[in-house]
Specification:
The chain is α+β, with helices and mostly antiparallel strands. Strand 6 and strand 7 form a beta hairpin. The protein starts with a helix and ends in an 11-residue tail after the last strand. About 12% of the residues have low confidence.
Length: 121
Amino acid sequence: MKSSILLAATVFCFMAGTAAAQSLADNPPTATTICLDVSGRSLPATCRVPGSRLDAREDICLCPAGGERVSIPVCAKGVRAPAESAAYESARRKAVDHGSLAGATYNGQPMCRAPRNALNP
């Protein structure tokens, strides 16, 4: 009886661990988190990431300097993020929809963030 309970508990723990694991399909990630103040200026975000250079996923991101946590797409290969300016910051602030900038554009260019640890060409 005790061994069957122990076996059932082990199987349950194993299944719970695999369900909580993040999918490898999100590596490299398609979105990241930025922190925005009320004017749309980007503030530093602190993200917990794996120690591997091959795994670019982010576990959790916080805004220790304040501001709103906003999800922003990672720029596709060959696409550069718009240059920071007062006009871009204002447009970015207005484009935030339910904490996300997915699908937002600025002057016909997608609002995105360069991938983490990307080599600059």
